[in-house]
Write a structure and sequence with these properties.
Structural class: alpha/beta
Strand content: 15-25%
Helix content: 25-40%
Radius of gyration: 19 Å
CATH topology: Rossmann fold
CATH superfamily: Thiamin diphosphate (ThDP)-binding fold, Pyr/PP domains
Largest sheet: 8 strands, mixed
Shape: globular
Strand order of the largest sheet: 2-1-3-4-6-5-8-7
Number of strands: 8
Order of helices and strands: HHEHEHEHHEHEHEHHEEH
CATH class: Alpha Beta
Distance between the termini: 54 Å
Length: about 280
């Protein structure tokens, strides 16, 4: 496994970005490895993928790590850029985005909804460290209720997109997304298999992937930066769909799979333009 891991690393990733520059014990590397492993198992080459990144921990750590073509979007705008790229790129090119929870579910939510609405072919990996950790550890759109953070020293009590039976994946399903899933960073091969399905969907796919942040979230919520504690804390609150317990925060697995069931955005655009050229109308 170690040999295989090094082969994959040397094939797909830039050596100057390995090991990661993330904080010690950060779980983002696990999420990143899951995505690259899925790409490898699908037999895709570096030239087959365009990798986009956003702002914050997720964007900073994964930007320019991919050996092939890549880009960075300003805060919340990577999905709009990707829709444009989808029209410009050959259909066989895969667009994979690694973004943070604030970028996806906060400032970028409207752009994200429009990407889902149009069913643009892209795979969005939302790396969720449970708040705004790169700016000091404030609570965010998916911070578990009751959690102590820099901006909620008495416990986060606001309603958010993962509380009171609300779930951000339901919003995206209603918007038209054709593949939705959730995994925590420690799900390993289960998550790899899900990412493979997401990439193969000719349409909008998103996987929400909470991961441990020992530096900010754990130090405030658990009173310790001990990496083992925060990894266990997340694992204890995650369970496969259908096996949820009373304390389950993250039900993991495939939430919605309607792969290849709706017209894909760029194909629809090209077909419509061609029809106008031939007939002068739609």
């Amino acid at each position: 496994m170690e040999y295989r891991s090094s082969v994959i690393t040397s094939k797909y990733l830039r050596s100057r970005k390995i090991p990661s520059t993330a904080c010690s014990g950060c779980g983002l590397g696990l999420n990143h490895k899951i995505v690259v492993q899925a790409i490898s198992e699908l037999g895709l080459d570096v030239a087959d993928v365009v990798w986009g990144t956003s702002i914050g921990c997720a964007g900073r750590q994964t930007f320019a790590t991919w050996k092939g073509d890549g880009f960075a979007g300003t805060h919340g705008r990577v999905y709009a850029i990707s829709r444009g790229l989808r029209v410009a790129l050959p259909p066989e090119k895969k667009i994979i985005l690694t973004v943070g929870d604030g970028d996806a579910f906060g400032i970028g939510l409207l752009h994200l909804i429009h990407a889902a609405r149009s069913n643009a072919d892209m795979t969005v990996i939302v790396n969720d460290n449970l708040g705004y950790q790169s700016t000091g550890g404030q609570y965010g759109w998916t911070t578990p209720q009751g959690s102590h953070t820099d901006s909620s020293p008495y416990g986060m009590f606001e309603h958010n997109l993962m509380s009171d039976e609300m779930d951000v994946l339901d919003i995206l399903k209603g918007a038209g997304a054709t593949f939705l899933a959730r995994h925590v960073a420690m799900d390993g091969q289960r998550a790899v298999e899900t990412v493979k399905k997401a990439i193969l969907n000719r349409g909008f796919s998103l996987i929400h992937m909470p991961y441990p942040c020992p530096t900010n979230f754990a130090s405030r919520e658990l009173g310790s930066r001990n990496q083992v504690n925060i990894y266990r804390w997340i694992q204890e609150r995650a369970a496969p769909l259908g096996e949820e317990k009373e304390n389950t925060v993250w039900a993991t697995g495939i939430w919605h799979d309607a792969s290849n069931s709706r017209p894909e955005f760029s194909e629809y655009v090209h077909e419509t333009v061609e029809k106008i050229r031939r007939t002068g109308s739609i």
